[in-house]
Amino acid sequence: MKLLIRQRVFSWTDAYDIYDESEEKKYEVKAEFLSLTHQIHVYDKNAQEIGIIHQRLFAFLPTFEIEIGGQVVGTIRKKFSLLRPQYEIDCNGWNIAGDFLGWDYNVMNGGTAIMHISKELFHWGDTYVLDFDHMDDEIMGLLLVIAIDAANCDNSNS
User: Residue 31 CA to chain centroid, in angstroms?
Assistant: First the structure.
């Protein structure tokens, strides 16, 4: 099962449309325009909020929380590094293998890949492909990828 994340090119904030394999819009991602930190909302095709990614305001290094139903279900923290940005992922017991800054990585559960993320080239605006093995991981995986994107975007600010 695949999802395609397409960035809206002409938008004042981070905005993405998420499509399924048959190119039907499935989710929508919108960032708050006037906010002290990143506040990103994810909605299903019926405009019901399914999750929020927000940046902690008073953290020493950038930290992003993933919320579903008002409960924090995962965090991404930037680690101190001199050469290349590194992040600590605490989300569902998952970890990441590969080059997540280059958008070619796997999300792993133990030693098993549960999702592969890659960036498609030659598109107007950024387009990412999320390839899931199990439909049950779709929402959590989508929120994790959006949180990683927010952390990467915040990379220039720290």
Answer: 12
Partners of 58 in beta bridges: none
What is the SS3 assignment for 138?
helix
How far is it, in rounded angstroms, from Cα 37 to Cα 31? 10
| Contact call for residues 78 and 64 (beta carbons, < 8 A) | no
Averaged confidence pLDDT in the chain: 83
Asked if 64 and 54 count as a contact pair (C-beta separation under 8 A), the reply is yes
Residues 44, 27 contacting (CB under 8 angstroms): yes
Q: Is 140 helix (H, G, I), strand (E, B) or coil?
A: helix
- How far apart, in whole angstroms, are the C-alpha atoms of residue 25 and residue 153? 24
pTM to 2 decimal places: 0.85
